[in-house]
Every structure is written in structure tokens, then in C-alpha cells.
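Our preliminary data section would be incomplete without showing what the modeling component actually yields. Below, a chain of 499 amino acids is followed by its predicted structure, encoded as C-alpha cells that our downstream tools consume directly.
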Amino acid sequence: MTGSNIPALIPATYILFAILIPVIGLWRSEITRALALLGSGIATFLSALGFINYIQSGEVIRYYFGGWMPPIGIEFVYDGLAAFIVLVINAIAFLVLIHSKEISKLEFPGRKMPYYTISMLMMLGFNGMVLTGDLFNLYVFLEISSLSSYALIAIGSKRAPYSAFRYLIIGTVGGSLYLLGVGFLYTVTGTLNIIDMHAMLPQVIGHSAVVGALILMVIGVGVKAALFPLHGWLPDSYTFASSTSSALIAPIGTKVAAYILLRVMLFLFGVELIDAQLPVTTIVGIFAGVGILYGSIMAIAQSELKKMLAYSSISQIGYIIMGISLANPFGFIGAVLHVLNHALMKALLFLVSGSLRTKEGHSLITKFDNSYRKKYPWTMVAFTTAAISMVGLPPLAGFFSKWYLALGTIENSNWMLLAVILISSLLNAVYFFRILEKVYLNNPDAEEADDAEAVSPQNNEVGFSMMFPMAVMAIGLLVVGIFNAYIVNVIFTMFPAGF
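Predicted structure:
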């Protein structure tokens, strides 16, 4: 195996295991999770090899399928940004699938084979979206990931099928708008290859079809990323899906969509052309800022942990898209760094929610009390770590992405978005610290405390398969925070032309 084959081997791994799981699962259904873990583990290993190769050599791999070069053939581009995102999403998926052992028995018993098969297809779609260098091929992978996401969400509570159908309708509209925009660009450039199209766009940037394509593609991808006000599908989808589905889709799906938006705005059109006809970055930045505040305020109003995390996701995706809209080096660094940070934070929080639902049968915030820190001490440590990072307190990872975003707003003299970052951090503190107060500060009722028969809660911590991925993510948040300067130096090498 050579590094030049990694862009093809990663999606090929998911294709292989999407076939193996149902074939072998019909014979031995108990090993379907092990097969999914093996496939995800191999993909993560390949992603790590590819990223290390990029760090060492700085080589950008352009893989031509069948040896056919674009515009005739399909191309995968494995540059620094793609290598980084692929490693993040595959590592998160691997950890989430480890955690799924106990939850799968509770939330989707008897449906493990289709569940893990669909998970492999969804990861195939996400990886293909990141790696492809062709706009139409990107749409194909977008639909693979979307259809798989709809199915995974439907495998949830009784209200999950309705949420999945709603997501399907809205997502189909978003995908159609993106495809229509691609068609407009093809009519004026004659190519679907992103690199070739980027070279041609300066010659046709004033064409009405190009302006229309930009608008359609930004709206279409904005739907997939849940950019305010296109977020309507997200809260119920994340709330009523199984805990494993939420932990897979929330930290990965919207981040990949944000990555596509970044590719379209900064790599396809470019910094100099993106605002040539319309103030696109300004408009996107305003919606991102409103979404950050809206998601934070709605999160405060929720009494169920998963619903709170769902609205929090709307807010957090706003940070990433805000960084993209700033279109300067600090904004780019903040956006890319927040993809990593939020993937870790949100995956960890959904895993904690799933762990508590497994043990308690619910994740209602109103029922949290100080018995939780005694029954689930390490789970609460993991939750606290993620919560503090989400608020943006050093030395955890969440602080540093917000710091670079703040620097980006200052560089652009955009004081409104700087205020949004500061206010939203305070709002984040409100909805997370109310839970921490219940767990660490609230004492039992005096009557209960004085009751001679009151029994102190016993340690009922989750098992190793649940605790291990949560511990890795919690430690990861600290490590990313401590070594953020090194990560930022790597992100510097990913800058698009014009920065």
C-alpha cells in the first residue's frame, strides 16, 4: 500500500463492510457490531496514515479513478484540509461505535444488522463528500449520506420516523438546490472538476448563471449544515433518533456540510470572487450570528438533555460558518479548529446522554441531582469537561477556536459578531451550569437528608465499552487545548489561495 492510494482505500473500506455486514449478519447477527468496528477502525487507521504523510511531506494527492484524468474521469483530492477532516470524522465514528454496545440492546434490539450496515453507508457518503474533487460526484455522496442519515434517525423512538420524514423532505429540497447550482456552473464552464472550475470562474464571474449558482449552492448546503434559518429539521431529528445515531450525525454530518460550504465559498469561488456580485459573506455571517444566539437561547428553554444539545448544535454550527464568512486567516483557523473541537464536545455530550438513558431510562434535566455524581462519577467528569469546553474556558479546546474566531472578527472590525461570540458564551454557561449546579451543588431535601432510612446512592458507573470512548474524548479536549498551537500551525498549511 502506498500513500497515494489512501483517498480510494478509505471509502472502499466502507463499501466493503457495508456489503460484509448484511451478508455475514444473516448468518451470525451477533458479530455485526464487531464488523462495523473493524471497518471503522481500518478507515481511521488509513486516515491517520494519510494525515501523518501530509504532515511529513506536505504532499497533495490527486487520485484519478481508472487512470482517467478530469474532466473525463472522477478525481479525489487529498489535501491537508481533506486529510484533517477525514481523520476527525472517522475517529469520532469509531469511538461512537465502541460506545454503542450496550445502547444497541436498549434502543434498537433486533435491528443491529441494518443499523450498522446503514452506518457504514453513511460514513461512505461523508468521506466521499470530503475527498471528491468533482461537484456532481459530491452530490452523489451527499445523497448517499443523506439517505443513510434519514434511515438511522428513523431507527429511534416512536416519533423518530416522523422526524426522519421531515428531514427527508427538507434535505431533498436542499440537495436539489445544490444540484441546480452545479448545473448552472456547468453550463458556463463546461466542467465539474473543482480545480478546473476555479481556474475558469474569473472569466465568467459576472454571468447571471454564476451568481445564481452561488446563491443556490450556499442555500442548499446551508440546509444540510442546519444554518439558521434553514435548521428546522435538526432539533427533532437529534432528539428522537437513537443516542448512537445522534452521536454519529450531530458531530459529523453538519460538520461535513460546513466543510462543503467552506470549499464552495473559499476554494471554488475564492476570497476575491465570492463577494464580487453579492455580499455573500456578510449575509452568511449575519445568519450565522443570529443562529448562534437563537440556538443558545432555545437550549436554555429545554428540559430534556438531548433536545438541549440539539439546539446547542445549531448554535455551534453557527461558529463554524461565522469563521468561513469572515474570509480571513483567523476566521479560517477558528472554523477548522472548531470542527475538531465541536466534533469532540458534541459527540461526548451525546454519549453521556445515551449512557444516562441506558442507566436511568431518561435524560430529563429536571431529574438531575447530586446523586448522579455519586452513581456516575466518571460520566459526570466527562460531561463537565465537555460542558466547560463548550462554554469556552481555557485550557480546554473550545476556548481556542472561539479565541481565533474573535481575532477574525477584530481583524474585520466586525464588532457585532464579536459581541455575538461573547454573549453566546455567557448563554452557553447558563444552560450548562444549571445542570452542573444540580449535580454538584444541590443538596437533597432536608426531609430526605434527615430520614434515618435514607440510603446513600451507590456507584453505578457505566461499563468499559461506554466509559472508554468518553474518556478518550474528554482527554482529547484537554490535549487539543494544550497543543492547539501545533494544530494551528498545521491549519496554516491548509489556507486557500488569496489568504
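DSSP finds 21 helices and two strands in the chain. The radius of gyration is 22 Å. Preliminary results of this kind motivate Aim 1 of the renewal.
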